[in-house]
Write a structure and sequence with these properties.
- This protein is an alpha/beta fold.
- Helices cover 36% and strands 18% of the residues.
- It has a six-stranded parallel sheet with strand order 1-4-3-2-5-6, with helices on both faces.
- It is globular.
- Bound molecules: adenosine monophosphate (AMP).
- Residues 31-32, 38-39, 41-42, 148-149, 151-152, 175, 177-178, 185-188 line the site of adenosine monophosphate.
- Adenosine monophosphate is lined by residues 31-32, 38-39, 41-42, 148-149, 151-152, 175, 177-178, 185-188.
């Protein structure tokens, strides 16, 4: 079947309605476009589980604070549609902002607590924008399953909670982080980096991996991990560290000691580009057969 590109809610409802009548399972991958291999991995995961795959391409204005990169965020609609075609996506939804936010809306979906930590501290209002647009998109597409990346670990936790509490009958899948050869997590924002900054940016994953290896060798102190990751990040070049945190992967609250699966998360500004990354480490599974670290939540 050929790819359809919808720009209105009615077009989406009609196409998804027809797929549903034909008994197809609907999978949904929300994105802001500028598609890279990380996005494609979500589309492929959806393709495996579902017989009708919908991808949204929408740079959501409400999740950017004034002064953030909304204006300069990469917009590559034609290339994104081509990529979706190659990946055998069935429907692309690429709405204009007034389709999503016409009529001066006054409704916001807010998830308390989980959004007050990590990226929520540095980007006030960001998660309200994300959660509200995802709730709108869920209501428009009404998928059976929706696919998100572990790269944005906090986002995935918050969306799971919102979907559960608002009774969206949608299975939420969280897929491993896809990385460049040097370990840098793929991100549309990597395009902002100069070549020196791009080389420096590899330190995020290197520092996280070194932390996972320390856990494998028996380190359990969150403070010691934070101190070492901070030192590694600072040693790589000029940067501003928004946070280095060791937290419970469900509650996102800081832990003192690594025990059960623990999320180690960082947010760093290199120049004006804000990069995030994370690794799940697990003391119980820390030492593999070869004595190496066994980080989870990672692409092979
Ligand atoms: P974005 O377009 O940045 O809003 O991302 C759309 C979806 O792709 C989100 O669920 C992200 O977590 C996911 N994503 C972004 N980068 C990656 C990556 N490197 N690996 C896996 N998923 C990713």
């Amino acid at each position: 079947m050929s790819l359809k590109v919808a720009t209105t809610i009615d077009q989406v409802r009609e196409a998804v309605g027809r797929a549903r009548q034909a008994g197809r399972k609907v999978g949904f991958v929300p994105t802001m476009g500028a598609l890279h291999a990380g996005h494609l991995s979500l589309i492929r995961a959806a393709r495996v589980d579902c017989s009708f795959v919908v991808v949204s391409l929408f740079v959501n204005p409400t999740q950017f604070a004034p002064g953030e990169d909304y204006q300069k965020y990469p917009r590559t609609l034609d290339a994104d549609v081509q990529a979706c075609r190659r990946e055998q996506v069935d429907l692309v939804f690429a709405p204009a902002a007034d389709v999503m936010y016409g009529g001066e809306p006054v409704t916001t979906v807010h998830v308390a607590g989980l959004t007050d930590v990590l990226c929520g501290l540095d980007r006030p209002g960001h998660f309200d924008g994300v959660i509200t647009v995802v709730a709108k998109l869920f209501n428009i597409v009404q998928p059976d399953a929706a696919y998100f990346g572990q790269k944005d670990a906090q986002q995935a936790v918050v969306i799971k909670r919102m979907a559960a509490e608002l009774f969206f009958p949608i299975e939420i899948a969280v897929c491993p982080t896809v990385r460049e050869d040097d370990g840098l997590a793929m991100s549309s924002r990597n395009a902002y980096l100069t070549s020196d900054q791009r080389a420096q940016a590899a330190v995020l994953y290197a520092a996280l991996k070194a932390a996972a290896e320390r856990v494998a060798r028996g380190e359990r102190s969150a403070a010691a991990l934070v101190e070492r990751i901070t030192a590694d990040l600072e040693a790589a070049g000029p940067c501003k560290i928004d946070y280095v945190s060791v937290v419970d992967p469900e509650t996102l609250q800081p832990v003192d000691r690594v025990a059960a699966p623990t999320l180690v998360a960082v947010a760093v500004r290199i120049g004006s580009t804000r990069l995030i990354d994370n690794l799940l480490v697990d003391a119980a599974r820390a030492v593999g057969k070869n004595g190496g670290a066994q980080p989870t939540g990672e692409a092979p």
